[in-house]
Design brief:
5-stranded antiparallel sheet; 22 strands; mainly beta; globular; 2 helices; 5-stranded mixed sheet; disordered N terminus; Tachylectin-2, Chain A
Length: 364
């Protein structure tokens, strides 16, 4: 298939061994968890580790693992998502966007003291024409050890217009996530997108095995009927023969919505039984399985809380969702040991040996 010529040249953060050994993901060998997230104070990639999925410790004491201004066109990343493939590789996808680069300072945080040099306007382009937080692309990375990465910057505005989108007028590319399609044998990245300042919807694209080039232009995955409302922050997890799809619509109280399909590309049928009992607006749903249990956690970013926090519910059947509270809340089993104010996270499995290595290297 002909390559799409709209990408920045793939760059290296460290290096990925040319003959990286591939392996099949085996739940019985897993003994820990890794969480990736970003923070508004630095727009960079952060990581935290947990051995039980309840108590979490940030690597490098909550300092960035990868600085956003070193990998993104807008000098900042948001909405990081990590996926562990059946080859053992770690697939990282992030929004290429900085919200505050016009400001010389933000809440008196020293991390903002020099960001004004990046942008003279509030947004990268006209906010009325392209909307809040407008951007043009994503950052995708791959590693076999969580330390040496390949990287590609995707700029969708350089794509030729097609039946689905006038790509030169792309208004946003947000919250990318990766899932493996067992039918095609390819990794699929799905993300929020809009044309101009129109309604947000979900598109997808397949990637090559190196995770450096799409195998075609993005295509529609999910949208509101007749584009009546916005659809953002998609999350997909395969359980048995069924794909579970979560998304958010701010027109519906910013509550994650659950849908299902037998195919990763849909069509998805919305399940109106979903209810997480959360009172405030929340977004960025991410679903992950507890190791060795038939129990799944739905984690979400509760932006309505002050200070900022995450909420969690558990389910065994994707019909009944039991709230287990917020980080560090009285009565909640979810705890943080050395970080706070995290945003838009995702969780994967690690082996105990991998978690030990990361904590030993970055947390002494």
């Amino acid at each position: 298939m002909k390559k799409i010529l709209f990408l920045a040249l793939a760059l290296m953060v460290g290096f990925v061994p040319a003959m990286a050994k591939k392996k099949v993901l085996n739940e019985k060998k897993m003994g820990a968890y890794l969480m990736v997230y970003h923070k508004d104070c630095d727009h960079s990639l952060h990581m935290a580790v947990s051995y039980d999925g309840y108590t979490w410790t940030s690597l490098k004491n909550d300092q960035p693992m990868i600085s956003g201004d070193t990998i993104a066109m807008q000098h900042g990343i948001r909405d990081p998502h990590i996926f562990r493939g059946p080859d053992g590789g770690f697939y990282l996808a992030m929004t290429d966007l900085h919200l505050f680069t016009q400001r010389s300072k933000y809440e008196n945080n020293p991390n903002y003291s020099k960001v004004s040099e990046y942008r003279e306007t509030e947004w990268d382009r006209d906010g009325k024409k392209y909307g809040w937080g407008n951007n043009k692309g994503l950052v995708v990375m791959k590693s076999y050890d969580l330390e040496h990465w390949t990287r590609t910057n995707l700029d969708f505005s350089k794509l030729p217009a097609d039946e689905n989108m006038n790509w030169s007028e792309i208004g946003c590319a947000w919250a990318p996530e990766t899932v493996y399609d067992y039918e095609t044998g390819h990794y699929m990245v799905h993300f929020t997108i809009r044309e101009g300042n129109g309604k947000n919807r979900i598109f997808y694209m397949y990637m090559n095995d190196d995770f450096t080039q799409p195998l075609g232009a993005p295509k529609p995955l999910f949208q509101a009927p007749d584009m009546r409302y916005n659809v953002i922050d998609s999350d997909i997890i395969k359980v048995g023969d069924l794909y579970h799809f979560f998304f958010v619509s701010h027109e519906h109280g910013a509550t994650p919505v659950h849908a299902t399909s037998k195919n990763v590309t849909g069509p998805y049928e919305i399940d109106h039984l979903y209810n997480d009992n959360e009172k405030g607006g929340h977004e960025a749903p991410n679903c992950w399985k507890r190791i060795g249990e038939d129990k799944y956690v739905l984690m979400f970013d509760n932006y309505s809380l002050r200070p900022h926090n995450f909420g969690f519910v558990e389910t065994t059947d994707f019909k009944t969702f039991t709230p287990i509270g917020h980080f560090d809340e009285a009565g909640s089993p979810m705890k943080r040991t050395n970080f706070s104010e995290q945003k838009h996270a995702a969780v994967i499995w690690l082996t105990k040996k991998e978690a030990d290595r990361l904590l030993k290297k970055y947390n002494n």
